[in-house]
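Hi R.,

As promised, here are both runs. First protein below:
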Amino acid sequence: KMPISAIFISNRRGDPIVIKFYKSDIGTHISDLFRMRVILSPENQKSPVITTEKTNFVYTKLKGIYYVAASTGNVDVILCLEILYKLLDALNCYFKKLDENSLYLNFPLVLEILDEMLDDGIPQITDIHALTNIITFGIPRKEKKKRKEQNVIEEIGSIPWRASGIKYKKNEIYVDVIESLSYIVSAQGDLISAHVNGIMRLKSNLSGVPICRIVLNDEVSLQFHRSMGIDVPETEGVEIEDVTIHQAVNLNYYTTDRILRFVPPDGTFNLMTYRKNNIEHLPFNIITNVLEVSPMKTEIHLELFTDCNPNTVAEKVNITIPVHPSTANCKTSVKGFGKAKYKPDIGCVLWKIKRMFLGDNHKLVIYVEMLPMNNDERWVRTPISIDFIIPGESTTGFSVASFSVEARDGSKYKAQKWIKYRTKAGSVQVRY
């Protein structure tokens, strides 16, 4: 892969704050070229990638400050963006407030971070834990002393994401499987599209250097373990795609044994993300019927129903129903749970239900009185949106088949394990 020639940081005027050159194939005027071609040309700011005068710029902007990677070759754009985001993570770790002034005052620290992150334009160390172990400039004296006492600054490379000397009175690890469900329903009640973006988030409060093993119930993993004679739940596997896993996971074990084997970072981290398309069973749907009582009066009848286990509980169900922009007065009548109120500032009726069983059906009638308007004006109805949380539920059926924690030397390790599932609304739209 082509290396990055330089990384620099500029303010909103285009003045360079910090420049780090990795290769000699790029001129010292690089920040001036970026200012002229990007900052002073708003039409070029529509894309984070700009090529001009045989130079490729990949950049991101935060609080008026530009973070830019430059190269003269065919550099990997995604890699450049990832490096810039890792740089932002590192700077936020060292600075209480990341702004132009703090960057000017601490430019030696920024240069040191850039020097450690890349070697000759090739990414080297990007993990936050590893960087803070190497670079102690800017860290409070108490923290430096504490690290020396715990011998944290030691060999980097074996497990750079986990420091040594971690101790807890009670060893616990929490696993949260959070699925974000997005779908669109047509005005006729037909499902147009539906997908789930899932994330497995862990919070590790484990002492020492433990090793975790997780077997998932995705279809490929279950079929593999059954073929090997390994005892796994007799359930149908779940098809998932677009899987990404944390760098702590041993890829050799995952590709050969379909096991997530890893030494967890301390604290909260995302172990994996995934996606599933073609979702069939929706937790909520709405049947609407709009009645034009008169030219200035309209009634909107809504029925909220579900297609899930009737014993499942949903919380914080918020339904937003846009009404006609010429609405002068609006009244609501709820038959079931929740409260509905017209919000004139946003031109919508908000129907809020704190808690409900998915087996229940609820109805809402909205009585709309409108101002006199031109008959040629046509009401373009904005879709209804639904927000909700379903604790203890996995829409895809994705789950942890088995979970164990052991010491690095193979001995027994006592740890309390907690696994929770939750489904929440992503972008849910019901047209009417």
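And here is the second one, sequence first, then its structure tokens:
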Amino acid sequence: SIIAYAIVSHEYHAHLSDRPIEKDKQKDKERVKEKEKEFEEKEREEREVGNSLNTEVIMAHPLQLTEAPLERAEITLKDRPNSSDENLLLSSKESVVSEPLNHSKAMHVKVSFTDESPQWKIRYTVTCYYAKQFDGLRKKCCPSEMDFVRSLCHCKKWGAQGGKSNVFFAKTLDDRFVIKQVTKTELESFIKFAPEYFKYLSDALSSGSPTCLAKILGIFQVTVKHAKGGKEVRMDLMVMENLLYGRHVTRIYDLKGSVRSRYNADATGTNKVLLDQNLLESMLTNPIFIGNKAKRLLERAVWNDTSFLASADVMDYSLLVGVDEERQELVLGIIDFMRQYTWDKHLETWVKASGI
């Protein structure tokens, strides 16, 4: 992955440590070789143990990773005598939040490198937005930066369902992360309210306040330029946690709290994304039961998150809900919260309200 290469580059780490950026390509190559060696050693150890990925889910905080899996908010479908509703949104016991989450200067870093082969020469440029802040967030949420980079090294295109934007989607082969293309408007909106986003997560991690925001772990702009012909391709990408990692969900809902054009008539097949009216319809014959304490925690988490998003003028997000009947749990998170309420969205709301 081009992004993974940029994250292990000398320029990127010099930026994080506030050292002057040295134009030393040999150091970049040595760093990459060291990372590759670490990857190989860890993979060898995992093969010897016979378990390359730890799939046990241990709740620590809805925005925090423990050992291997990405964390997510979980709700038990029914009360069980041997389990606690604390599996929903347990508070983090760590009160120390990494300073880079609130660091405000030197926000972005640009890394460039060239792939020279006998057939062609390609110039890659990766802009890592809010590099220090995202690095600080990943340190709190991921097992290690090496695991994050290793996941990004192996991705596949993914035909995500439920969206209408027809943007590019990909998933890492280990299923931990989702890579999604973001529009220019979404990128500009996020850059504006990103300081508030990092502050909100910092406060949530330190105080244990309930939240179910799906974590965005990096925003990148990737530019690929061919020396022959000068063709240039540019794409803005977001890396976020896969809420359904390690799960066997039988139903997936994308909920917005509206019934206008919110029904999926084709509900057959696996991994079909259902909408608000589908949920209302299924509740008549197949209702979902949760305990009172879990319900209160869920309401608190949604209240906290929507209050934050409203304060940042963010709208048009969704609550993704997966039903894991095997574990009798719900897996949920608020997604697609990069769009602020600008004049075009105001016009869209007016058109919908007028019935045009």
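A quick note on the second one: Residues 49-74, 76-100 have pLDDT under 50 and may be disordered. Let me know what you think.

Best,
J.
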